[in-house]
Amino acid sequence: MGSGGLSTVRVLMCALLCAMCLLQVKPVNAVNSINSEITGVENLLKAKQYADADSKALLLLEQALQQQQMSADAFSSLGLLLQNASRFEVSKAIFNAALERYTVEGKLSRMASTLLQLAISERHLSNYAMAMTYVRRAMSIAQIEQDDLLKARLNLELGIIQQEQGEIETALEPLKQALSYFRENNMANEMSLSLLRIGEIYSLLNQGALAHTYYQDAFDSIENTGSPKLLGTIKARMGALALKSGSIKQAIETINESLTLLLTSDDVGAIAQAKMLMGKALVENGDIPKGRDLLKEAMQFASSSGQAKLMKEGRLALAQAYMKEQSFELALAEARTGTIDARKNRDIRGQLSFLSLQLSAFVSLGEFKKALDVQSVIQQLREVLLDSENKSAIEGLQAEIELVRQSRTLEKLEESKQLVLAQAERENLQTTLFWSVSLAALLLTFLVWSRYKQRQQTIILRREVRQQTLILQEKNQELERAYKTLEEVSLRDPLTGLYNRHYLESQLPGEIRRSQFSAKQNIEANKSKQDLLCLLIDIDHFKRINDDYGHMAGDKVLSAFANVLKEVFRQTDLIIRWGGEEFLVVCRQSNREELPELAERCREMVARTSFDIGLEDPINITCSIGFSLLPPDKEDDFDTAWKRTFAVVDYALYATKLSGRNGWVGVIETLKSPRANPTLLDTRFNFPGSRIATSFNNVASITWPDTLDK
């Protein structure tokens, strides 16, 4: 090759190298530019320039979609940034773009995570139907991928959605499933959030003490390691609970602590929620102007971020503040606006709340005809609510009682009005007679006719009010019956028909007190039938049944197992489905010496029973049992007695499993004097000594666990 040919080759090689460098530099420059734009959005959010941040994010989205330069992960990061700043509408658009990219790339796990974020945004915007759709889609992917962590997070979100929709009892199950996973895997923040949401459910059920326990557990679990945002949110719910119970000063103090924590986290949504609670607390405390300003500030944020629920709560609180100030016209205006918004969102409960405020405002303004019209609308809505949502019976009952009270107040006000009119007429008659005797007959006739017409109107109005009151009383009775039915359902396990933990918590304190009182009255306790006996029974290798035959077979075994327990124990004994394959039995008015006999009878009955699971041949199962006297030693405090007893029977059950299953281990009684060779059970529970019974060879053959974790 000549020198000219070599020169041409060199030039071509240089051009090729330059082109390759440019191709590499271009993507890098594009990525740097996108990162710079995302940082710009973040800076606008920190400066609280939300409108500019929304516009910039949407412009970046449009450009990225046209040029195909932005990755799915970058979309997801931008969506989370906007979601954390409560810009839920814009975050939806960003997450949808990320979902589309992940779908094209076939990344199922990332698709499910993005669907979860979309569900969170829709839930904050009160679009619950769409949120549920996203959760179901994500759950299907999680099942395929066998991603237990994602399942737990989806269960948590599912419980939150159901809770905010008013499906309180339904929401408990997914929340408890999520809590179980987070607790097993030591995920403190997620566990705390699950405890917080369960506490909110118990607060809605008016179980304030139980709700506070869950809130406190949620706070304690992350007090030293949790984020200020979550800690502040928990404190805010504690403050809301104190406000609900009437402890105004405590509520203000707790909400102040919440705001202090939240202001360090820059979570504008949580801060607005806390400010709304503080506004309500200040109004209740009498500082209405300051409280009203905080409520308006929270509503302004809710309006800008599209949070319908926060907007409704703020408007309701603001209308109530106006009522306290006796600014009835302003209260009426807010209540009317709230009613219209609730009607648009098909929120029956919201309509009832605002209509009740309208009723109070009309009564206070003396516009009784309008008040009766509003009352009629309220009654119609309550009938719709009663037909469609029996689970809201408790709230409906309280509202109906308030409505009856307001109706009676209306009747009394109407009677007072007639008395005032009568007095005015008498004065008018005296003045007329004084000035002109000639017109006396005409004026007397007019007054008699006027009084007659007014009396007729009064009779008609009273009759209408009385009829409405009778109708409301009938509805109250229907609601009471529905409440009793709901209460019965909430206290029983739907699969086995046995009582659940709620029933045990309501019955056990009284049983322990009666047993302790009888023991004090009868010194010879062994000769009496006054002991409480506690047995914890677990089906052996139940997971294998589910794995080998399916969950429907497992459900049949659980149902049949419950029937076996009913045959073994008396009708007066408390048989509880404790959870999963565990059952708890509390025998009342029994003798502690009967414990080994009861345990052996139960074990033997289960072992020789054939369980039909819908296959050609039935199966046989065994069970393991741990038992104890309740309480094992003399304790006066219920919480201490029950917690210690359950820890003992749980420990004994675990020892049974470690010792070979299909048997029983338990404590018949504790001793007053120390034993020479205490067992591991005595050491763990600080017993001086104990009398232990077992179905195995002897106490020495028992394998005691080192911990209480199964």
Automatic annotation (TrEMBL):
InterPro entries in UniProt: Diguanylate_Cyclase (IPR050469), GGDEF_dom (IPR000160), Nucleotide_cyclase (IPR029787), Rev_trsase/Diguanyl_cyclase (IPR043128), TPR-like_helical_dom_sf (IPR011990), TPR_rpt (IPR019734)
Record keywords: Coiled coil, Signal
Signal peptide: 1-30
Catalysed reactions, semicolon-separated: 2 GTP = 3',3'-c-di-GMP + 2 diphosphate
Chain coiled-coil ranges: 462-492
Domain GGDEF as annotated: residue spans: 530-669
EC number: 2.7.7.65
Cofactor(s) named in the record: Mg(2+)
PROSITE patterns (UniProt xref): GGDEF
Pfam families: GGDEF, TPR_12
Gene3D superfamilies per the UniProt record, alphabetical: 3.30.70.270, Tetratricopeptide repeat domain
Top enzyme class: transferase
GO cellular component, one term: plasma membrane
GO terms for biological process, alphabetical: cell adhesion involved in single-species biofilm formation; negative regulation of bacterial-type flagellum-dependent cell motility
Molecular function via GO: diguanylate cyclase activity
PANTHER family: DIGUANYLATE CYCLASE DGCM-RELATED (PTHR45138:SF9), REGULATORY COMPONENTS OF SENSORY TRANSDUCTION SYSTEM (PTHR45138)
Protein's name according to its UniProt entry: diguanylate cyclase
Species: Alteromonas portus
Taxonomic lineage: Bacteria, Pseudomonadati, Pseudomonadota, Gammaproteobacteria, Alteromonadales
